[in-house]
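Bug #77: duplicate submission created two jobs. Keeping one. Sequence:
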Amino acid sequence: KAPGWFDRLLGEPFDVFANLMSSVIYEAARRGEGVIIGHGSQVLLKDFSCAMHVLVVSTEEHRIKNIMTQMGISREAAGKIIQKSDNENMGFYRYAFQKDWDDPDMYDVCINPGKIGIERTAQTIIEMAQYPELKACNIYAVDALDRFSKTKRIEAALIEQGVNVKGLRLEMPEKGLVQISGILDNPMDKDSIAEIIKQTPGVERVDMDTLMVLPASYD
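Kept job's structure:
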């Protein structure tokens, strides 16, 4: 089940938010240097060698003291805030990506500012990001990020318009072309899908030749 606080916070179905979030992350990565904090970026960008994924950890005691200092609250209140945040992060990652957010396999580096301090932690991350092994994304990676961003934005638009995308597969094999395959359970959606997709900037053609449309059922 999707974490309910997303619906309350955003007034949007979780799947719409998740697709828009993914689109923004891909677009931010396409533009180049920057820092993306969480939001599944370590999952979405795991196959891009030009991205470095860092897991920042700390002891519960250190986290509680930081919250108490920053917010001027009691130890008990700080502990509840941390527990609530951890539970929400866990729910988000498990629902959206079927992953645990603290899984070390999703990260390149794990660092504890409680040991070396926040300033030295930041400096260490900056220095590692400048290693020659972390080269800038090549033109093929940049193109892929652009296509992934557009695909996720299209999925969000379709969901907002009530289209069931569960059985559909959307791809952009080349610039300007969107291919849709899979099974569409409502034949009345076929024409509207093409129109919705064409409203996305950068989309010139829509290929639905391999899309299977189920016949309408009559009660």
